[in-house]
Structure formats: C-alpha cells, structure tokens
TrEMBL record:
The organism's place on the tree of life at top rank: Bacteria
Record organism: Tepidibacter formicigenes DSM 15518
InterPro entries: Metallo-B-lactamas, RibonucZ/Hydroxyglut_hydro, WalJ/YycJ-like
Protein name (record): Phosphoribosyl 1,2-cyclic phosphodiesterase
Domain Metallo-beta-lactamase: 13-193
Length: 264
C-alpha cells in the first residue's frame, strides 16, 4: 500500500491537502468553504465520511476557513498545537470537545498507521508548523507558509519521496508590484513566504536526498504565475545538472482546483 496525496486547493484563497493511506483519510488545513472542499474532492471520488483528522498548520484564514464546518458536518477531529488552538478556537466555531486534539511541535504522533511529525517553521503566525507523514516505508512532507528554510526544517523534510513546497513569489515581481511597502517587507521577511528562487535552491538538496516528486504550492496571485515558478525552479535545478522529467517530477499546484492523485 502507498500514500495517496492530492492538493484540494493551494494559494492565498484557500489551502487544503488530502492524504490517504489504507483506509485512513487526513486533511492538512481546510481553508476552503466546506462545500468547495467537498466539490473538489468529489472530482477524485473522495468523500469525507470517516475522515480521521484535519491537521492545522497555522491560524491564517486561508488555512482554517472550513475546518469547523467540516468537523461539525463529518465529526472530524481537529489537530493543532496549543498556541494555535488559542487563536483558532473562536474563529472556527464550536466543535465537539472530543474532536479537539492537541499536539506538541516536534513530537511525532500516530493517526492509525501514519506517523505524523509536526515541526516548527518560520512564519508570522502564533506557532506555525509543517508536517511529515511516514507509513513505515515512504515519507511525504507538506511545507508552505515559511519565510526561510533553516537546517532543522531541512532535516525534517530530507528523505521524503514527495514534497509539497511553497514557491510563493518572484522577488522582482513582488518588489515592482502593487503591494504596499509593509506587505512587501512582510512577505520578503524571514517570517513571510518562500520565493521561487529559494524553493529552487532547497529542491536541489531534496533531490540529492532522494525526493522524486516536488509539487510547488501556495503561489501568490499578484507576484507569481505558474509558468514562472516552474521555470525558475527548473532553471535553478538545471544549474546543478538536475533535470526535470529525468531526475525528478516537478509540478505546480493549482489555486482553486484539485490536483491529480499522486501515489507514493
Ligand atoms: Zn497561507
Ligand atoms: Zn500564512
């Protein structure tokens, strides 16, 4: 058996990832409306009955908008660390007491047969995390909304077969674009978002450590476009003689649409 992964949506209007393994279904973030999440998953014939958990990365609306609704509708537990719970509790509405699950960063836990490691990342949120998932054979990682990739983050992600990695913006587009100064500063800061170039540089290390599929995620609508993210990362990899299509599979996740179902 292998992991199944799909991006339900990716970008500032809503983020949601689906992970399946055997009969276990997990969502990472639920930033779309409940209805849109159902619709997108239906395109892959996936329903949310018996979903084992919604794992929250951080409290920004594009990651939690539908979490409460889905938890109430399908009786799904929501997992987050304590600091994140403090700031999402009144945003997601009332959910059942026993669906409130609290984890500690950097302390792995299991949902059925999947070992989950939530690890700290750098972003302007209360206590943001990224996740790795391990089924005893393969590992996959989801890391978006991170200002930079420090050594600790790298170590957590290394050896993943599939990595969902933020490739948020093109630095020049951002600098020349219409964002107000404070917002530009925020995005570019170490607690902001990862640029195409930085994503590309980290992809080199990932491929050297055995990553086979990289899915670029959380693209900015104003300061990026899919072809640019793809070509920038591809170009950075090429400089190190790593070739898309030969040494790795590289794709860009769509903003509002469900992706293919990847098997790892
Ligand atoms: Zn976000
Ligand atoms: Zn965020």
């Amino acid at each position: 058996m292998c992991f199944k992964y799909a991006s339900v949506a990716s970008g500032s209007c809503g983020n949601c990832h689906y992970i399946g393994y055997k009969n276990t279904k997990i969502l990472v973030d639920a930033g779309l409306s409940g209805k849109k999440t159902e619709e997108n998953l239906n395109n892959l014939d996936i329903n949310l009955e018996n979903t084992s958990g919604i794992l929250i990365t951080h409290e920004h609306t594009d990651h939690i908008k539908g979490a409460g609704i889905l938890s109430r509708r399908y009786n799904i537990p929501i997992y987050a660390n304590e600091n994140t719970w403090k700031v999402i509790e009144n945003k997601i509405g009332k959910i059942k007491e026993n669906n409130i699950k609290v984890f500690e960063n950097n302390v792995p836990f299991y949902i059925e047969d999947i070992k989950i490691n939530p690890f700290s990342i750098h972003h302007d949120a209360a206590d943001p995390v990224a996740y790795t998932f391990y089924n005893g054979k393969n590992k996959i990682s989801i890391a978006t909304d991170l200002g930079y990739v420090c050594d600790k983050i790298k170590e957590n992600i290394y050896d993943s077969k599939l990595v969902v990695l933020e490739s948020n913006h093109d630095v020049e587009m951002l600098k020349m674009g219409s964002y107000p100064y404070y917002l530009k500063k925020r995005v570019l800061s170490r607690k902001g978002h990862l640029s195409n170039e930085d994503a590309g540089r980290f992809c080199i290390e990932l491929v050297e450590r055995g990553t086979e599929k990289i899915l670029l995620a959380h693209l900015s609508r104003e300061n990026n476009f899919p072809e640019l993210a793809f070509e920038t990362v591809k170009g950075v990899l090429q400089e190190k003689n790593i070739h898309v299509g030969k040494n790795l599979e590289l794709s860009v996740l769509k903003r509002g649409k469900i992706s293919n179902l990847y098997a790892v």
